[in-house]
Amino acid sequence: MTEFYPDIKLFHIATVVASGSLFALRGFALQLGGQWAMAAPLRYLSYGIDTLLLTAAILLLTILPAAVYANGWLAVKLVLLLVYIVLGSYALKRGRTASIRRICFVAALLVYASMFAIARTHHPLGLIMYFREWLT
User: Fold this and answer.
1) 44: pLDDT strictly greater than 90
2) Which of 23, 34, 37, 93 has the most CB atoms within 10 Å of its CB?
3) Same domain, yes or no, for 79 and 35?
4) Which of 38, 46, 27, 35 is nearest to 105 (CA)?
């Protein structure tokens, strides 16, 4: 199964970018008053992309040895994923006021960027680890 790792990883990265881009597009559209961002086809596309993303993530998890995750970066990323889902839900739909939806949207984008940085660095602090090393 390890021979498929590069292809699965590339697919996973593509779905991460697609998922984040679609969320950002829908969120910005809603902030500007575009109710088309909540249309059923876009919602279902989002669900489909996220399903493929999680499937690829699970495949990668089963292929790689546990030692790759020993420093806790994956656990931090999974906790942030839950935070991202909740913030995204409030940003697109559940937020009672425009102000709450806006704050949740920006926070969700920051959490998404943090997860991306953690995945790239394979370190629980993500890009913060570079600043921490620079400051000491």
Assistant:
1) yes
2) 23
3) no
4) 27
